[in-house]
Write a structure and sequence with these properties.
Blueprint: H1 5-15, H2 18-35, H3 46-50, H4 61-72, H5 75-84, H6 87-96, H7 104-111, E1 116-120, E2 129-133, E3 144-148, E4 164-168, H8 172-179, E5 200-203, H9 206-221, H10 235-245, H11 258-268, H12 280-288, H13 298-301, E6 305-306, H14 320-328, E7 337-338, H15 339-348, H16 358-361, E8 366-370, E9 376-380, H17 386-404, E10 408-413, E11 426-431, H18 433-438, E12 455-458, E13 464-468, H19 471-478, E14 482-484, E15 489-492, H20 494-498, H21 504-518, H22 524-537, E16 546-550, H23 556-564, H24 566-571, E17 574-576, E18 579-583, H25 587-596
Antiparallel strand pairs: 1-2, 3-4, 5-10, 6-8, 7-11, 8-9, 10-11, 12-13, 13-15, 14-15, 16-18, 17-18
Helix pairs in contact: 1-4, 2-4, 9-12, 9-21, 10-11, 11-17, 21-22
């Protein structure tokens, strides 16, 4: 929507300094105004726009605000300004108005290779060179930033220009002004694909997750997943879980068991057994609806970035995971959306979903990726590559996170090289019916029928369990509940079962987890056996607040008084071996009675 002159003047006053108004707003159109003195734009001419402002004088900020507000609120003027320039100017404005910044790759597509030159400056020490933009970019000089990633400026040569990067950024308010009349970029709206084909391989864990989740939670509750002191999942530990439980994994991940790592990351986020409810679907809903921002998701999504552990939780942008999930809720039901479409949709609409602000990560973190020969290469994150190495992998990681939970189906191109992150191969995605349900887009969901790969057979008259199928997987399922007595037979062990239970509530939760893990209705004997464990837990009550007194072994008269006095016998809980136990709430009555009998109790 176009700004009125008054609205724009108010924003310019609040968001711009005098120098910014002069350099970024007025100077770029100044020459255009003088070469179009006779043009009329909605009744405005250069003379009426200038009014009483004398450009020969040093303009005050109020004059610049008034002048720029009249220029940039006149869409007819701006349209002619855009059309009168070079084709590159129009392309730059059309692109830069809809994205936070144009990087080197985008600018090279417009202006060709070689965006900067070396300019000799004899006044500099050792006759050093300085960088300057090529002539075609000169009109954008105030909007660009040039960086050269070399150790010393005293040794810059023509060869070093390959390390030069350029970014072009329009002020946010200026982007809003041009957006009002420039065409929307392709991808501004989410556009469903007819079909996701080509070189893509497909991954869908919707059918698998409900079978896997009880095993995963049981594996976690047994303490098999390892985490750092800050709660970040260990890569090797996640890989071992994948191998032990035979979890379905994303295609072509090579050394990285990404799916298992993502699941381990979710569980590390203050997960407790209280999250387990009656069915795997309810447990999954509990996981999927939790606030993942308690600990930043970046640690287990951006494993290719080394040094994120240097940041504190306050450095991470709050609510970005929730914002990304809200964006994904907008994906049309059962529709495939290309990841490139999603990137344009996010950037062109101004959604802020960066995990850490770009200026915070420069020179503080490195990107480390494995090449095909297993050697690792390091790259520093800069203003120019921030989106490639951090922003878009972070967004893609959330789609993989949904896919790990069966909430999304993804298509990957296994032929693509890994350049920026382990999510580079993502081509397109769609939200599954399970995802629609867990994201709150539908109210009902019918789980698919499950194929039980490993069967557990329960004896109907004794606490014996027999494994049929994958013995190794069965071992993992029962390791925290029973003791192995032969190759495929286990005996239920109350000691193991109760080992990590501290309260009756813990026991009830573990029984729920056990039922989920075995995934079948138990025989009557087992229901009674488990109920007996619950009943037994209520049989012994702890008396916490008591007072213990000791009596001298030689004071026989005192022993006789305490043993024979009817009042004391009703107060004292136990008297044995010269020790008396009195409950805290009856201690005052005990000391008063002892006074009556001639004994002061200190």
């Amino acid at each position: 929507m176009a700004f009125t002159e008054k609205e724009l003047a108010k924003r310019l006053e609040a968001e711009s300094t005098k120098d910014q108004l002069l350099q970024l707003w007025f100077t770029p159109v100044k020459n255009f105004l003088f070469t179009h003195r006779d043009s009329v734009w909605k009744g405005e001419t250069v003379a009426t726009i200038l009014g009483k402002i004398d450009l020969r004088k040093n303009l005050a900020k109020t004059d610049l605000i008034s002048l720029c507000a009249r220029i940039y609120s006149n869409q007819a003027l701006l349209k002619e300004y855009v059309d009168s320039g070079s084709p590159q100017r129009r392309v730059v404005l059309e692109l830069a108005s809809w994205v936070p910044a144009l990087d080197t790759e985008s600018l090279e597509a417009i202006f060709g290779k070689g965006l900067v030159n070396l300019k000799s400056d004899k006044k500099l020490y050792h006759g050093n060179y300085e960088l300057e933009l090529v002539p075609a970019l000169k009109e954008w000089n105030e909007f660009t930033k040039v960086e050269l990633n070399v150790w010393s400026y005293y040794s810059i040569s023509q060869n070093d220009l390959k390390n030069a990067t350029v970014t072009l950024t329009l002020p946010l308010l200026m982007r809003e002004v041009f957006k009002a009349f420039l065409p929307k970029p392709k991808g501004y709206d989410l556009e469903p694909l007819l079909v996701a084909t080509g070189k893509s391989g497909f991954f869908n864990a919707e059918r698998d997750i409900l079978r896997e989740l009880p095993l995963i939670i049981a594996y976690y509750m047994q303490g098999n997943l390892k985490y750092s002191q800050k709660g970040y999942p260990n890569l090797a530990s996640a890989g071992k879980m994948q191998r032990t439980l035979k979890l379905k994994e994303f295609d072509n991940q090579n050394e990285m068991t990404i799916r298992s790592l993502l699941i381990a990351g979710i569980l590390s986020d203050d997960f407790t057994a209280k999250s387990i409810t009656g069915t795997p679907l309810q447990a999954l809903k509990s996981l999927a609806t939790r606030d993942f921002n308690n600990q930043p998701a970046a640690y287990y999504l951006l494993t290719h970035i080394k040094g994120l552990n240097y940041f504190n939780n306050r450095d991470f942008t709050k609510g970005v995971t929730e914002k990304i999930f809200d964006i994904l809720k907008e994906v049309p039901a059962a529709s495939w959306i290309s990841f490139e479409n999603l990137k344009v949709y996010i950037s062109s609409r101004g959604f802020h979903v960066a995990p850490i602000q770009s200026y915070q990560v420069y020179s503080r973190v490195d990107v480390e990726l494995a090449n095909g020969d297993k050697e690792r290469s390091k790259t520093s994150i800069t203003r120019n590559n921030y989106n490639h190495y951090m922003l878009w992998p972070f967004v893609a990681g959330h789609i993989y996170l949904l896919a790990a939970l069966g909430m999304a189906e993804i298509s990957e191109d296994s032929s693509l090289p890994v350049r920026y992150s382990y999510f580079d191969r993502l081509q397109a995605f769609r939200i599954t019916p399970l995802g629609e349900y867990l994201l709150g887009k539908t109210n009902q969901y019918e789980p698919p029928e499950q194929e039980q790969l490993t069967q557990l057979s329960f004896d109907e008259s004794s606490p014996i369990i027999r494994i049929e199928g994958n013995i190794e997987l069965g071992d993992a399922m029962l390791a925290n509940y029973a003791t192995k007595v032969s190759e495929n037979r286990y005996q239920f062990s109350p000691g193991k079962f109760l080992k990590d239970c501290k309260t009756g509530k813990d026991l009830e939760t573990k029984i729920t987890l056990f039922r989920q893990t075995v995934g079948k209705k138990l025989p009557l004997f087992w229901d009674s056996y488990l109920q007996n464990l619950v009943d037994n837990s209520k049989a012994i009550k702890e008396q916490k607040k008591v007072v213990v007194y000791t009596l001298p072994s030689t004071h026989k008269d005192l022993h006789r008084v305490i043993a024979q006095d009817e009042v004391l016998r009703s107060i004292v809980i136990k008297a044995e071996q010269y020790i008396i136990i009195v409950s805290d709430d009856k201690n005052e009555a005990f000391t008063n009675r002892m006074k009556e009998l001639g004994y002061l109790v200190e």
